[in-house]
Predict the 3D structure of the following.
Amino acid sequence: MPDKTLPQIFKFVDQNVDSYKQLLKEAVAIPSVSSDIKYREDCVRMVNWMKNKLQEVGATTELRDVGFQTIDGKEVKLPPVLIGSLGKDAKKNTICIYGHLDVQPALKSDGWNSEPFELQERDGKLFGRGATDDKGPVLGWLHAINAYKGVGEELPVNLKFVFECMEESGSEGLDELLIEQLKPEGFFKDVDYVCISDNYWLGTTKPCITYGLRGISYYFLEVECAKNDLHSGVYGGTVHEAMSDLIYLMDQLVDKDGKILITDIYKSVAPLTENEKQLYASIDFDPEAYRRTINAYKLAHNGDKEQLLMHRWRYPSLSLHGIEGAAFQPGAKTVIPGKVIGKFSIRIVPNQEPEEVEKLVFDYIHKKWAERGSPNKMSISAQSGRAWTENPDHPHYQAAARATKLIYQTDPDMSREGGSIPVTITLQEASGRNVLLLPMGAGDDMAHSQNEKLNLRNYIEGIKLFAAYLYEVGKLSK
């Protein structure tokens, strides 16, 4: 492939910005919220929309059934997983691209400045649910493919695709599909590398490539009144309220400084080596700039750069997410629920195994419940995924680093990430190949929060990055 190819592709990308924004607007307009059953048809519609777009760039596609899930005692069909392939040249490297098409819930009343499912451009930023997580990056691959076609060049690699619409709800059914069906069928047989773009730069200005993720354990803490026939006598304190018990338990999980109170939770965390300690010092991260970006009064750990990074990457953390069954409508309410479910999660790190962490949590919760001495019923369940790391010195990572430097004129930081993408490990195990996380979005994109956005610059330069990445991987020895 001649050296003039990439400059031509970059020019083509710059000439088609409006069409890229329009396609993202179409994708954001589909409210593919996987956690809410009323949006299940929208999730299916999103998968079919993406299927058509892949076919338009010449890919062969297939929708794979992954079965059912149980919601409120009912069997509900899961959205199909979209599988695709483009190119079968045995002389070329083959990359498997993973992305997800579902999003977190969003309502304007949550605090959005505009309707979350109507893409809005303000101050060089594209606001909308899913813009950065993960519809923008997924579309980036389509645009990169189209750019090669637009300048009359063949793709320098073969591509395979795995796009799902349940990532935000635990990727139900996907592990079984990858390991028990696609792997035996030979889907990964000719795959040389795996790439995921579902993460973010550490900050807002410096690009990075990610070689590690924390795992995650989701917990569901249920408390139910001993007698469900609640009556007016509760106002006299004759019934031990489920909500009071749940609040008590959740208050025992983490202190005001973010330290997890669960016994021995830090015991198996990998020890800090001198080499790792030096890595944190060299990372380009400005705590004060980060504080201003997120409009925080102060940062944890006194704003110390190394401590902030370590607690984001290498130490576990606990987050409280919500209470199901509680009265949440505005205005004065005196509803007393008979059953409530508290939801929290723990981000786990290398050397911590999910089974070990779950046992520590269960033992601790049961101990605190015994101390509470409530007559109510309590149960706890969990759903977990392991932490993941790769070797950032691998040729695959170095190819991505060259592509990043070409686009952003600076060497990227090799970073770990505070978030979790459990399918990363599954793809690593199913393919047996090196897995790379190549971010498009920035650290202040507010994924999962109000006013989620993708900087227009990151979107457009990210398309160029993907094109350059394909070019650089195409040069790696087969």
